[in-house]
UniProtKB/TrEMBL annotation:
<dbReference type="InterPro" id="IPR001347">
    <property type="entry name" value="SIS_dom"/>
</dbReference>
<dbReference type="GO" id="GO:0005975">
    <property type="term" value="P:carbohydrate metabolic process"/>
</dbReference>
<dbReference type="InterPro" id="IPR035461">
    <property type="entry name" value="GmhA/DiaA"/>
</dbReference>
<dbReference type="InterPro" id="IPR028098">
    <property type="entry name" value="Glyco_trans_4-like_N"/>
</dbReference>
<feature type="binding site">
    <location>
        <position position="494"/>
    </location>
    <ligand>
        <name>substrate</name>
    </ligand>
</feature>
<dbReference type="Pfam" id="PF13580">
    <property type="entry name" value="SIS_2"/>
</dbReference>
<dbReference type="GO" id="GO:0016757">
    <property type="term" value="F:glycosyltransferase activity"/>
</dbReference>
<feature type="binding site">
    <location>
        <begin position="550"/>
        <end position="552"/>
    </location>
    <ligand>
        <name>substrate</name>
    </ligand>
</feature>
<feature type="binding site">
    <location>
        <position position="555"/>
    </location>
    <ligand>
        <name>substrate</name>
    </ligand>
</feature>
<dbReference type="GO" id="GO:0008968">
    <property type="term" value="F:D-sedoheptulose 7-phosphate isomerase activity"/>
</dbReference>
<protein>
    <recommendedName>
        <fullName>Phosphoheptose isomerase</fullName>
        <ecNumber>5.3.1.28</ecNumber>
    </recommendedName>
</protein>
<dbReference type="InterPro" id="IPR001296">
    <property type="entry name" value="Glyco_trans_1"/>
</dbReference>
<dbReference type="InterPro" id="IPR046348">
    <property type="entry name" value="SIS_dom_sf"/>
</dbReference>
<comment type="pathway">
    <text>Carbohydrate biosynthesis; D-glycero-D-manno-heptose 7-phosphate biosynthesis; D-glycero-alpha-D-manno-heptose 7-phosphate and D-glycero-beta-D-manno-heptose 7-phosphate from sedoheptulose 7-phosphate: step 1/1.</text>
</comment>
<feature type="binding site">
    <location>
        <position position="602"/>
    </location>
    <ligand>
        <name>substrate</name>
    </ligand>
</feature>
<feature type="binding site">
    <location>
        <position position="602"/>
    </location>
    <ligand>
        <name>Zn(2+)</name>
    </ligand>
</feature>
<keyword id="KW-0862">Zinc</keyword>
Length: 666
């Protein structure tokens, strides 16, 4: 039976910027934080084991926080441990993915990934590809929709749209939050309708229930008799709070109403325009509309206080330009308060016009003012609508119900993945850990990135020294142990034979690892420690070059070979990893791979050796005068070192270069 149908399936909820722990009210804290928190808790209540991955944006946060039973919050170290605008987070997603892959390698994988927002979707899609896991995504907001409404004000990178298109193609399911969201996915993103499931957002009946209106007002210090209109939520222009103020002002005009508009939200508990710039603009609008004394800005409020605000209000107003879902109207309805909303996004789905509240076009303060006036002057209508609102949300929009619907989606995906799994997976593939493979790739990429700056010029200098050695009529000796012995022979084969340049003469490179008779006799009879040094004494001449290859730089026979080479006047090159060990100070030119992981070091060492071969061939072909016929250029007749004699580098230049390298190395 697929795991998603049985036992305790493990779900990773990914929400890069919206932590379930964050409070409501700041620019980047809002519905998504609530969604992730509630979905996690209610999935856990259904028996799921849930880890929520979110970016660590405060140094005080632990890596793993056991939040509520069945739910952990994993704070992912990606970028500085400080609050950052979500528009700046895309470059950090590679680190986010790497961390999650490592975390899953240590702590076990998940049965399904559920991403929230497009950047988490990117993380989920990459992990899903690597690990063969199913993933579903709730976008919460779509770039193309946002662009339609906010145009130039959209500060997200261009890549967002292409990434969203990829996610729409690759996700096993796309969770639309309302019919409008579903239509946008189909029409703007050509999403496959068979993979879209509409699951709304919800409210928690334990958190939001009607309070006695007068008592709620008393607790909040509000006038018990004034008509009270509430606007609550994030304070950003697209939320249309300015329209709510203008509509409120129009509702009062020509009516004998004692009413107040309460605007709850902002980046601080006090209404401070310095901390919430939008607040200053809204205050100016209230003044311009002549209702400054009738509009109260409270600043942000704790979630625990919100049910009193919703219950205290006679009408809740929410008139954004657009709204992917809109959780606050639900919460108001759950407190028995009718909602006057804009006919957009999820609001036109949750609010039934004329039954649980009223809908007006977005950005239309006149229509809003008209309807608000009607509602504020008709208490029985408000009462009926409030009751119908309560009934509607309790039936259709609890988080418990949302979690059940998501669980159903997860099960379907699980069955689908099971059905489409190839029937005969070879035994070897079953035991292969994709995490191991991914870790190796990431490790090699990181080691290459770290080595790049230092190693590139070292490779150039090594190729130059080796070309000069050949030009002098000298030879190269090369040695190492194990994998490095193989590399030494590989290197010799490329230069004695050919790397890319056809028709050139053979270049004198001798691998000291190839003579088994000598290696076994000397090791058997005398010792392995000087098996290479002995050969350096036998073959090495002043002006020759010794190249040693070692990942640790600590192999005694390699160190001894370097010492013997120095004694005999050979130039010494050492291709090393880690700190370079005892070999490093004995090398005229050390080539350093910035890694301590032996296989990764070897892989980069092979790259260095191949590049040295390529550069040596380039230097050799460039040094032969172009006036010579091709055959002569590639294999000129004559002296002991015919090709080299065509190179125009003098012996004094070489020894000067050698001296410089020696000096630099001290
Ligand atoms: O290929 C590998 C490891 O990947 C081994 O054969 C490895 O080369 C051997 O353990 C060597 O003896 C290690 O020597 P060194 O690189 O520390 O000089
Ligand atoms: Zn190896």
């Amino acid at each position: 039976m697929p795991k998603l149908e049985s036992g305790t399936p493990r779900i990773a909820l990914i929400s890069e910027h919206a932590s379930p722990l964050a409070a409501l009210g700041g620019t980047d804290a809002g519905g998504q934080n609530v969604y992730v928190a509630q979905v996690a808790r209610h999935l856990a209540a259904l028996g799921y084991v849930v880890d929520v991955f979110t970016r660590r944006d405060d140094p005080g946060l632990p890596e793993v926080l056991a939040w509520v039973p069945g739910v952990r919050v994993i704070h992912v170290p990606a970028g500085p441990a400080a609050a950052l605008p979500k528009e700046d987070l895309l470059p950090l997603m590679a680190d986010f993915t790497r961390f999650m892959a490592g975390f899953m390698a240590r702590e076990g994988s998940y049965d399904l990934l559920h991403a929230n927002f497009w950047m988490s979707g990117l993380v989920a899609a990459d992990l899903a590809r690597m690990l063969g896991l199913p993933f579903v995504i709730t976008f919460h907001a779509l770039g193309k929709v946002r662009r339609l409404h906010q145009g130039e004000a959209d500060g997200f990178p261009e890549a967002r749209l292409a990434i969203e298109e990829r996610l729409v193609r690759e996700a096993h399911r796309i969770i639309a939050e309302c019919p409008q969201d579903e239509a946008d996915l189909r029409e703007l993103y050509a999403a496959d309708p068979a993979r879209i499931v509409t699951v709304p957002c919800g409210f928690d009946p334990a958190e939001f229930m009607p309070q006695d209106r007068r008592e709620a007002r008393q607790r909040l210090g509000l006038d018990p008799d004034e008509a009270l209109v509430l606007q609550l939520g994030r304070m950003v222009p697209r939320k249309g709070v300015d329209d709510a103020i203008r509509g409120f002002a129009r509702a009062l005009r020509g009516r004998d109403l004692s009413a107040r508009l309460l605007v709850v939200g902002g980046n601080s508990p006090d209404p401070d325009p310095a901390l919430t710039p939008e607040l200053g603009r809204l205050q100016a609008i209230a003044r311009a509309e002549g209702v400054a004394d009738r509009v109260t800005f409270t600043g942000s409020r704790e979630r625990a206080a919100l049910r009193d605000y919703y219950s205290a209000a006679d009408v809740f107003v929410s008139t954004p330009w657009y709204e992917p879902f809109g959780i606050t109207p639900l919460e108001a309805m759950a407190c028995g308060t009718p909602v006057l909303g804009a006919r957009v996004g999820g609001i036109q789905f949750t609010v039934v016009d004329g039954e649980t509240g009223s809908l007006v076009p977005p950005r239309d303060p006149a229509a809003l003012g008209q309807r608000l006036g009607d509602l504020l002057t008709d208490a029985p209508l408000r009462e009926r609508m409030g009751q119908a609102a309560l009934q509607r949300v309790r039936t259709h929009f609890t988080w418990e119900g949302v979690a059940r619907q998501l669980a159903q989606v997860y099960r379907e995906v699980g069955q689908e993945v099971e059905r489409t799994r190839p029937p005969t997976v070879p035994a070897a593939a079953q035991t292969t850990s994709p995490i191991t493979v991914e870790r190796a790739f990431q490790g090699l990429i990181a080691a290459l990135a770290h080595s790049r700056a230092a190693l590139q010029p070292q490779i150039g200098a090594a190729a130059q020294a080796i070309s000069e050695c050949f030009e002098r009529g000298n030879k190269v000796l090369v040695c190492g142990n194990g994998g490095s012995a193989a590399d030494a022979q590989h290197f010799a084969a490329e230069l004695v034979g050919r790397f890319r340049l056809d028709g050139r003469r053979g270049l004198p490179v001798l691998a000291l690892t190839a003579d088994t008779a000598l290696l076994t006799a000397w090791s058997n009879d005398v010792g392995f420690g000087d098996v290479f040094a002995r050969q350096v004494e036998a073959f090495g001449c002043p002006g020759d070059l010794l190249l040693v290859i070692s990942t640790s730089g600590q192999s005694p026979n390699v160190v001894a070979a370097l010492q013997a080479a120095r004694t005999r006047g050979l130039t010494t090159l050492a291709l090393l990893g880690g700190s370079g060990g005892a070999a490093r100070p004995l090398a005229d030119l050390p080539l350093m791979v910035a890694s301590t992981d032996t296989p990764r070091i070897q892989e980069i060492q092979l790259l260095a050796l191949h590049l040295i071969c390529e550069l040596v061939e380039e230097q050799i072909s460039a040094a032969v005068p172009a006036s010579l016929p091709t055959a002569a250029r590639l294999n000129p007749p004559g002296a002991a070192s015919p090709l080299i004699s065509a190179l125009q580098i003098s012996a004094p230049q070489i020894s000067a270069a050698q001296e410089t390298r020696k000096g630099a190395n001290l």
